[in-house]
Amino acid sequence: MKMEFCLNDIHPGQKAVIRELKADGSIHRRLLDIGLVKGTKVECVGRSPGGDPCAFLIRGAVIAIRSEDCGNIMIQLPEGV
Q: Model-level pTM?
């Protein structure tokens, strides 16, 4: 069973909480700027037809994030998922 999850692991309609950002450099700063800090609730609201990027509801705004960057955003799934 996989114990560590990233933002790529949730599907449209699922929710999660940000646990950690593993990104470095300017992308780390950009993720912080859009509100992705520890404890932030996110919801996947859609995926493009090719699967990349994905759209997430973050602090009231819908933000598209590339799959490559989602892999560096560690999440905690709600209990019972």
A: 0.87
Q: Residue 73: how many CB atoms within 10 A of its CB?
A: 23
Predicted confidence at residue 4, as pLDDT, reads: 85
Measured CA to CA, the distance from residue 22 to residue 59 in angstroms comes to 20
- Per the CB < 8 A criterion, the answer to whether 28 and 18 are in contact is no
Our CA angle for 20, 21, 22, nearest 5°, is 115
Cis check for the bond before 49: say yes or no (omega within 30 of 0): no
- What does the alpha-carbon distance between residue 51 and residue 1 come to, in Å, rounded to a whole number? 24
* Strand-pair partners of 43: 15, 57
